[in-house]
Amino acid sequence: MTGSHGELAHLDAVTALRAFRSLELSPVELLDAVVDQAGRVNGDRETGINAFTETFFDEARAEAERAATAYLRAARDEEPTAPLLGIPVATKEKHNLAGRRIEQGLAAHAGRVAAEDHPVVERIRRAGGIIHARTTTPEFSCATVTHSPMWGVTRNPWNLATTPGGSSGGAGAALAAGMTTLATASDIAGSTRVPAAFTGTVGYKAPYGRIPGLPPLSADWYRGDGPMARTVADTALLASVMSGQHPADHASWGPQGAAIELPEDPVGALRGTRIGLSLRLGDFPVEPEVEAATVDVATRLERAGAVVVPLDLPWTGDQVMRTIFAHFGHILAPAVERESGGVETLAPYAQRFIADARRAAERTSLLDSLALDAAMQRELAAAMAEVDALICPTNAVTALSAEGDYLNGIDIAGQHHDHYWQAHLTSPFNVANRCPVLSVPSGKAENGVPTGIQVVGHPHEEQQVFRIAAAIEALTPRIQWPTLTPTA
């Protein structure tokens, strides 16, 4: 299989698997391209992309050689192969690898070692995926920027002054830079979708429980683990491998390995689909470039035969922030505080998160927070009653600073907001966490950073969001991956 170095490093998994099976490409060639790309462009923790916490390149190459042998045998004997056999996968650091460190960016966890694989890691390995690296996060995955004293600053390959987003920032940066083919992520307020949008990649927040997690925090109904990739088809592939009931997670459900089917002609399949359009999900401010990219996607969908219906939601920024921080104040913030060994040891953004969440929990009981959740869920269901899915921006801004803490809030479209999480239109769908949501690219801003659009489905209707996302991908001009200067 021919192609330049960068083209092979950015090759999608579906195409690679097809080439593996036809023996046009070896898993060793793909892994070597990805590893070489990482060596060329990842750089250091101060000024580079810095997307990895740990790498296993030698072990991965041995696995790739075994995969190549397996493909030769399968071609000779006409045998099927495992669904991810030979594909490089970078895992988010919080996803345990047995016998490897599990630190989550916390000084109190330095040197801690995982006893067992996370369920998604277990399934990726069983499916033949090759885990060659682990990706950076902010401390305990509680920010939408990715930097920490432990791992340094992770930067966006599209614009090194900006963040790839968070908390799965290392995953998005590695995908955009061609340093992995697939990646794992997680999402409790947008931690998959925010970096997907900022890096021009695809991120999926599955319905709660569809992809298993680890207790006790797997019981948090806002959270979920999931896939990131460079295409909708690759994201569907990894989601199908990760999904399904698992004994470690009592909330997990559904069949294991069930394929998410995409239509052969996603644009043709779009005809007659009713899609709701909300540019602000109520009163979220949205920067003009983001709004223009979202309107452009909606126009393309309408021209292709979809029925685009403007939707109004009664949500306010204050309502959303009150709802999510009451929830975090009773679950996530106490977990971060306990695991960190003391708030004073944390990065400023983590200290700010805990302080805000603690105050919210003091004002609102857990029981009352359930009522806040239910109100937003009811309002979303009413707004979507006459449509098949909803589209809206992923992020309200075109970028965040790579090193920013945003302790004093953020200015968005001429308005000041007390908390920088209001720069993302993602957390309402963690409140409504039975809804599947995909973030797919919608364009690129003048600062060089991509923009993204969310496709939100009715509870548990995964096929619909993937079908619409595939159509958006086919209708939206693909921006070329960033040209990166090799590091010394």
TrEMBL record:
Database matches in SUPFAM superfamilies: Amidase signature (AS) enzymes
Domain Amidase: residue ranges: 47-465
Pfam families: Amidase (PF01425)
GO molecular function: catalytic activity
InterPro entries, alphabetized: Amidase, Amidase_dom, AS_sf
Record family assignment: Belongs to the amidase family.
Name this polypeptide is given: Amidase
